[in-house]
Amino acid sequence: MPTLVIEHSALTGSDRFGEILRDCGHRLDVRRVYLDDPLPPDLDGIDAVVACGGPQSPLAEDIPWMNREIEILRDAHAAAIPIVAFCLGSQLLGRALGATITPLEGGIEAGWHDVTLLPAGREDPVFAGHAWTSVQLHWHRMQVGDLPPDARVLARSARTPVQSWAIGLRTYAFQYHPEAHAGRGLQWADDEPGDLKEASISRDRLEADTKECFPAAARLADRLFERLALMVMPLDRRFAGIAKDLHH
């Protein structure tokens, strides 16, 4: 059974998280909706869902695939199929499960900024061994606001109260970008140069911050992703003893 990966842009894939999933035996079924790849009609045979980031507004009403993706996320959560979502994916997951989605006050949060684990995050096994405060890559102007009553907020930043959240044991979301490769932020800056101006950050500053901050962030992300892969999305529950055969 594959892990469904929904990509919304050529610059916002599953990246380092997808690599670790493959290393842990997951077979990825990547659907590039920005290239009109169809989303599956149902969740039969789907082992987990990864919803990636993207430049689209999570409130858009004129994007054909968005409503179907929201349905998939809602149905997967209801069926206890593991979900991991990043940035836009987190916002679409929020829509699917009844959260409010609002513009970020003060405009875009971009570049490298602190993310702090809240008590629920410090106690969550997926963050075991994770620094309580770490510098992470951000790139968003929308945010998840009020969450469903059964959700828990795991982390925040100075400007974004919900940087990571979860419901139950199988649904996790991240507003920041632990999945991004080292050069992703610079690619986003080159693709949308107005974003840096809005964030009052120069490209040189972003490049310097990336060189300084990425190595530590990558080490923490590796630990986080291994725990997500092995604890939230474990293959052994369905494929005991044959995970090695699913490596691609």
Q: Which parts are unreliable, with pLDDT below 50 for 5 consecutive residues or more? A: 238-248
CATH-level-2 architecture: 3-Layer(aba) Sandwich
In total, how many beta strands? 11
Kindly provide the radius of gyration, computed on alpha-carbon positions and rounded to a whole number of angstroms.
17 Å
What does this structure look like?
The protein is an alpha/beta fold and 248 residues long. The chain has one domain (3-246): Class I glutamine amidotransferase (GATase) domain (Rossmann fold), CATH 3.40.50. 34% of the residues lie in helices and 22% in strands. It has 7 helices and 11 strands. The chain has helices at 15-23, 64-78, 88-97, 119-123, 184-191, 193-199, 203-232; strands at 3-7, 28-32, 48-51, 83-86, 101-103, 109-117, 133-140, 142-144, 151-156, 164-167, 171-174. The strands form 2 sheets. Strands 2-1-3-4-11-10-9-6-7 form a 9-stranded mixed beta sheet, with helices on both faces. Strands 5-8 form a two-stranded antiparallel sheet. Helix 1 (15-23) runs parallel beside helix 7 (203-232).
Blueprint (SSEs and pairs):
Elements: E1 3-7, H1 15-23, E2 28-32, E3 48-51, H2 64-78, E4 83-86, H3 88-97, E5 101-103, E6 109-117, H4 119-123, E7 133-140, E8 142-144, E9 151-156, E10 164-167, E11 171-174, H5 184-191, H6 193-199, H7 203-232
Parallel strand pairs: 1-2, 1-3, 3-4, 4-11
Antiparallel strand pairs: 5-8, 6-7, 6-9, 9-10, 10-11
